[in-house]
């Protein structure tokens, strides 16, 4: 195989990889837009729930699960313990959440999202703490 053939093969691979990267960027853009739309809808639903809850009779005591989403409860836990490093299971026990593996995995996803939003730091694998 000569140099010209090698360069042609390299250029073909470059073009293919660049096209794949462009396709992935487009997918990310579509998913980012869809996520923003879903988050906006979620915020509307939460607001609607709060309005409906405020219209209930005064003797109605809302449960903690009704007054705050799990995300809010997680953020509140970190705000109340700013220096503490949490593992997911410890956080579940503090919040009184189930400690089965599927529930733990959902919270790991939530913590990853809160981490990406810049509210948390990850000082080690599987450990989370409030960003200072």
Give a short summary of the structure.
The chain contains five helices and two strands; from the N terminus they run H-H-H-H-H-E-E. The chain is mainly alpha-helical and 132 residues long.
Distance between the termini: 58 Å
Sheet with most strands: 2 strands, antiparallel
Number of strands: 2
**Tally of alpha and pi helices:** 5
Strand content: 5-15%
Strand order of the largest sheet: 1-2
Determine the structural class based on helices, strands and strand pairing: mainly alpha
Radius of gyration: 23 Å
Which shape, going by the Cα principal axes? Answer: elongated
Could you give the order of the helices and strands? HHHHHEE
Helix content: 55-70%
Average pLDDT taken over every residue: 86
Poorly predicted runs of 5 or more residues: none
Structural overview:
- The longest helix has 52 residues, at 3-54.
- The model has no long low-confidence stretch (mean pLDDT 86).
- The protein is mainly α and 132 residues long.
- The protein is built from five helices and two strands.
- It has a two-stranded antiparallel ribbon with strand order 1-2.
- The radius of gyration is 23 Å and the shape is elongated.
Q: Which terms would index this structure?
A:
132 residues; mainly alpha; 69% helix; 7% strand; elongated
């Amino acid at each position: 195989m000569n140099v010209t053939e090698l360069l042609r093969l390299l250029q073909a691979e470059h073009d293919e990889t660049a096209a794949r990267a462009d396709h992935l960027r487009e997918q990310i853009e579509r998913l980012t837009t869809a996520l923003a739309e879903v988050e906006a809808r979620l915020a509307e639903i939460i607001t609607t729930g709060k309005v409906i809850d405020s219209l209930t009779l005064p003797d109605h005591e809302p449960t903690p699960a009704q007054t705050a989403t799990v995300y809010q409860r997680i953020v509140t836990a970190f705000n109340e313990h700013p220096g503490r490093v949490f593992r997911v299971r410890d956080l579940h026990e503090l919040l009184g959440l189930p400690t089965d593996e599927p529930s733990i995995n959902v919270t790991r996803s939530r913590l990853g999202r809160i981490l990406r939003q810049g509210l948390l730091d990850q000082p080690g694998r599987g450990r989370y703490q409030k960003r200072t």
